[in-house]
Every structure is written in C-alpha cells, then in structure tokens.
TrEMBL record:
Family that this chain belongs to: Belongs to the RNase HII family.
Gene: rnhB
Enzyme class label: hydrolase
Source lineage: Bacteria, Pseudomonadati, Thermodesulfobacteriota, Desulfovibrionia, Desulfovibrionales
Cofactor note: Manganese or magnesium. Binds 1 divalent metal ion per monomer in the absence of substrate. May bind a second metal ion after substrate binding.
Name listed for the protein in its UniProt record: Ribonuclease HII
Protein function: Endonuclease that specifically degrades the RNA of RNA-DNA hybrids.
Length: 213
C-alpha cells in the first residue's frame, strides 16, 4: 500500500478513473467549487493542462469540449456560509464529494489533486482513491476536472458580481487583491464573503483607555 492510497493499488481501465480538483479555495469571497471527470481512453483536448497554467480563453475553449467528450463529469459547490461553519478544508472535501456524486457514472477509482484524500463522511461512498501532488499538471483527468471547476466558478462569480456590486467580483473572482480588500473595508462584507477569513472578518479594535482627568 502506498502512503497516499486509501486502498491497495488496483489496476483499473482509464474510463473507470475520475480525476478530482477544486477552484477558489484561497478566495475571500464566493464558493469553493470542485470538479470530477472521467476521460475516455481516447480524446481530443488540445492543450489540456493545469487550469492555472491556461489563459481564460483557452479554458473557455476546453470547457465545452471536456463536457462533450468526458465519460462522466460532475461539479460540486460549497458556499461561504458552509466554509465559515466547517472551515475551508472540510468545505473543499464537501464540494469534492458533491462533484463525485453528481457524475452520471460512478467511478471505481479517484485521483485527487493535492496531498489529502477525501474523507468518507464527505464522499459518502466507498471508492478507492489516492492523492497526486501537483496532479493537475500530471494527470489528464485531474487537469480536466480543474478546468471544469475553475471555468464554472468564474462564470458563477460574474453572475454574483451583478447581485453584489461594488466589490469587483467579476474581475478578481473573489481573490484577496488590493482592490477587493479596500472594497471590503469600504462597504463591509456581503453574503458571499467568508467571514472567518483574515482580511474579511472585522479586526478587533484597540481599546482606548479612558482619561482619568
């Protein structure tokens, strides 16, 4: 058994293995989104790679192609209030579990980007899995999952920007840019902000000692 595998290694066909990845884990606003994808043995996805290494235009091109060619794919979302309740790591696992359960075909094996496995309580079923460090650049199914998660999340943030104006959500996608932090300080957080995150939660104001005179 390898250190990063939940079960003893078993050989499965490519079409039975799902890659899983997330997008938006480090943001100050918006949900964390996970993608899960099973690719066929043969596919035509030119330039498939880690979503972070692709331009937005390239991701937009691949997004529909992945959904068309995939054996199965799914997306899972965990919202800011869930993140605040159970913390970002557990919310990421929850989103991953939802993505896997959303697929029309259940995989026989999961390959998770990163250095952690999805806990059973979040996955909700017994599927052998292993994590792959920097898997979004090594495993095509994980690369595809990362593109699905990132592109879907970007589309969602553009829509949320119209509902929560003034923060620039459609530009920085919820990340902690200088402009975003300044908007939070000026307007206060909205429903899409993660209130337990530093730079969002109100800092304790220093107590001013009352004068004795």
């Amino acid at each position: 058994m390898t250190r990063n595998s939940l079960y003893q290694a078993v050989h499965y066909d490519t079409v039975e293995i799902a890659g899983v990845d997330e997008a938006g884990r480090g943001c100050l606003a918006g949900p964390v989104v996970a993608g899960a994808c099973i690719l066929p043995a043969e596919y035509d996805l030119p330039g498939l790679n880690d979503s972070k290494k692709l331009t937005a235009g390239k991701r937009e091109t691949l997004y529909p192609l992945i959904r068309e060619q995939a054996v199965a794919w799914g997306l899972g979302v965990a919202w800011p209030w869930e993140i605040d309740e159970i913390n970002i790591l557990q919310a990421t696992f929850r989103a991953m579990g939802r993505a896997v359960r959303a697929m029309k075909a259940e995989p026989r094996f999961l390959r998770i980007d990163g250095d952690k496995l999805i806990p059973h309580h979040a996955l909700g079923r017994d599927i052998p899995q292993e994590y792959v460090i920097q898997g979004d650049g090594k495993v095509p199914a994980i690369s595809a999952a990362s593109i699905l998660a990132k592109t879907f999340r970007d589309h969602l943030m553009v829509r949320l920007a119209g509902r929560y104006p003034g923060y620039g959500l459609s530009k920085h996608m919820g990340y902690g840019t200088k402009v975003h932090v300044e908007a939070i300080q000026r307007l206060g957080p909205c429903r899409m902000h993660r209130l337990t995150f530093k730079k969002v939660r109100p800092e304790d104001k220093p107590q001013v000692q009352a004068s004795l005179f």
